[in-house]
Amino acid sequence: xxxxxxxxxxxxxxxxxxxxxxxxxxxxxxxxxxxxxxxxxxxxxxxxxxxxxxxxxxxxxxxxxxxxxxxxxxxxxxxxxxxxxxxxxxxxxxxxxxxxxxxxxxxxxxxxxxxxxxxxxxxxxxxxxxxxxxxxxxxxxxxxxxxxxxxxxxxxxxxxxxxxxxxxxxxxx
Length: 173
Description:
This protein is α+β, with helices and mostly antiparallel strands. The protein contains five helices and eight strands. Helix content is 27%, strand content 17%.
């Protein structure tokens, strides 16, 4: 583990989910939805990202390559939805209705929240949020993220917080 210091003399250390130890330069590379429980963020250090070919979430394309990427979608996949799937209708689970307010949506009129895999329940969700709810949920996610992210605790912003904050600002009404 490196002992280099960040500007100002602070060294930022986090937990690497791949080699399961503290490490410098950790980044979020994966979100694990837990179905009825809290989701989890998986962090990887620079060495593990390189060794396992992992890409930080902020650098991943949230949609397939053939689909046009709207800049607002950059943070939509980071909005947590823990414990919501048992209460969701099929329309909400598969992108035909907003998961929060049940307003009918399409991928053109709403904001795609990205594919959500629930391994324990063997489900794959494709939620799409309405424009009204996405701003509120993004603002809540920024606040929650800032309180729970180790990197944000030690520095101004991490990439996940920047994406959520941009989404909140771009979707405010």
